[in-house]
Amino acid sequence: MSVSDKTAVITGAGSKRGIGRATAHTLAAAGWNVAILDLDETSAKDAAHEVAERNGVQAVGVGCDITDETSVQNALAVLDDSMPPVGALVNNAGITSPTPFLEVTGEEWDRLFAVNVRGAFNVTRRIAPGMAERGFGRIVFLSSVSAERGGGVFGGVGYSAAKAAELGFTRALARELGPRGLTVNAVAPGLIDTDITGGALEGERKTQLLAGIPVGRNGNVADVADLITYLCREESGYITGATYDVNGGAHIH
Ligand code: NAD
Question: Taking every annotated instance into account, which residue ranges of this chain make up the domain Ketoreductase (predicted)?
């Protein structure tokens, strides 16, 4: 068994400076073929092209709205026809919002859960059966330090609640699918330098946050990508149901 005859699916890996794209590269460097699902079809294809060119693996990029079951079904059908069987899934696509609880609307709350939780459900529900059938799978969820410490970085209550839901999802799924050869883990990044905040986290607030990080810097995407790739190794089969912090010591518990 080798990862070179398997595909890793990464959602939300279009974003140029995002955690997903960096993860696609590190997984490909470790030998995985890669499938990128992103709302932004052009960036998904661009990322796949970049990954294939740089790492010499098969890569495909597909436009997909993970909140929409039909869109997920259609995107995964493309893989069925063109890629090796799926051995890893990284539930990375996510959105955040800093809206305070006393101002948040039901629509915004639902949207946070639609992408971060229901989206991960839509993709995992379609991919896990094949993994279970083949007796091998690695699933990694992108939660957040916000889930563990109750916000306080950028995201508000809705984001923290959705990211905490992903932890429950991870743990229960690990228990259910362990006997079928799947591991399911979560990573909980702290402040990582990407475009998810749309440039809204700058100035005084950022300086304050950095002051609370023992290693003295915010994280970069490679810090997170390496951890995810480690969890996807075949040799990491005894690690499951775990949450891995990658936050520079900003939250130690
Ligand atoms: P990003 O904004 O750079 O990338 C997110 C990607 O998800 C984008 O490419 C976007 O197009 C895609 N996406 C959004 N909605 C989608 C949908 N409905 N269907 C398909 N794709 C969709 O974000 P990032 O900072 O790289 O974050 C990646 C993950 O890590 C997220 O789940 C985020 O919550 C989590 N995280 C990030 C940080 C951080 O500080 N950056 C910290 C903790 C957790």
Answer: 6-190
Using CA of residue 143, residue 39, residue 29, residue 91, what is the dihedral sign? positive
Report whether residue 219 contacts ligand 1, using a CB cutoff of 6 Å: no
Q: How far is the CA of 194 from the centre of ligand 1 (A)?
A: 9
For residue 63 and ligand 1, the question of a CB distance below 6 A is answered with: no
DSSP letter assigned to residue 219:
B
pTM of the model: 0.98
Q: Whole domain around residue 18: which residue ranges?
A: 3-245
CB 141 within 8 A of CB 232: no
Q: What is the pLDDT along the chain (253 residues), one digit of tens a residue?
A: 689 999 999 999 999 999 999 999 999 999 999 999 999 999 999 999 999 999 999 999 999 999 999 999 999 999 998 999 999 999 999 999 999 999 999 999 999 999 999 999 999 999 999 999 999 999 999 999 999 999 988 999 999 999 999 999 999 999 999 999 999 999 999 999 999 888 877 888 888 889 999 999 999 999 999 999 999 999 999 999 999 999 999 999 9
Q: Does 213 reside within a domain?
A: yes
Catalytic residues: 159
**Is 252 a member of any domain?**
no
